[in-house]
Specification:
10 strands, binds zinc ion, 242 residues, alpha/beta, 6 helices
Length: 242
């Protein structure tokens, strides 16, 4: 992950496929298809997102190609596989909210529109690490109780948990209490660097400004092919990248 895009990354081994960096073009086969999507319809799961009809027909379902927003017909440099309610514990899918919304492929604008609303509404505490735009392929939230099961190294998990447990004061951008700690790549480039995780000043932000900060960071990346993005769940946790 941020500490190293190579398979030698020590802190985090999840998901296993992450060691391979995909090309910067949409690669549908890399997406992880969730089979137990429940009964929730696309329209109900993602109001406001227009999905291309061809990605919703019988052939797409048969071949398990996730529905994609209409913009991906013309946008080849930025896409993300959004699997909001599912966590992967060492590569194994584990639903964190039911009914789980179906896996979909979204362009940058559609992803960020979904994410910002979700993140701003989440009441829990979040430590979010800025991803390395040149190498990340996944950006995902793991709650504190799932750190070990998700493969986070114990020292890193302890350091992040400590940060989550500290009083956070007020938001740097408004008067509201802070719920987020945004940590830039300059402060922590590598999650093996437990010392910097413990000491990084970061930006304390309320949910709304934390959501905006994360979306600004992702939105400022000119090319991306993310094959896993989820949303927060639980009382506290971290946004990590690999
Ligand atoms: Zn779109
Ligand atoms: Zn704020």
């Amino acid at each position: 992950m941020c500490w190293s895009p190579a398979p030698s990354a020590k802190s985090f081994s999840f998901p296993e496929a992450s060691a391979r960096r995909p090309p910067r073009v949409p690669v549908r086969k890399l997406s992880v298809t969730i089979l137990f999507v429940g009964r929730i319809t696309l329209e109900k799961a993602y109001p406001g997102v227009a999905f291309h009809w061809r990605s919703r027909n019988w052939w797409a379902r048969l071949t398990r190609v996730p529905p994609e927003c209409v913009h991906l017909q013309h946008e080849a440099t930025w896409m993300a596989t959004y699997i909001p309610d599912t966590l992967f514990l060492r590569g194994k899918a584990s639903v964190r909210r039911r009914p789980a919304r179906p896996e979909v492929s979204l362009c940058r604008a559609c992803l960020l529109a979904q994410l910002e609303v979700e993140l701003a509404a989440h009441p829990g505490r979040i430590v979010a690490f800025e991803p390395d735009s040149s190498s990340f392929t996944q950006y995902f939230f793991v709650s504190t109780p799932d750190f070990a099961a998700a493969g986070l190294q114990p020292e890193t998990a302890t350091a992040i948990s400590r940060r989550l447990g500290l009083p956070s004061g007020d938001c740097d951008a408004c008067e509201l209490p802070a719920a987020w700690l945004w940590i830039s790549r300059e402060e922590v480039a590598n999650l093996d660097d437990v010392g910097h995780i413990s000491m990084a000043r970061g930006q304390s932000l309320c949910s709304r400004h934390g959501a905006r900060r994360l979306c600004e960071s992702l939105g400022g990346i000119s090319e991306a092919n993310l094959f896993y993005v989820n949303v927060p769940y639980g009382e506290a946790g971290a946004y990590l990248w690999i």
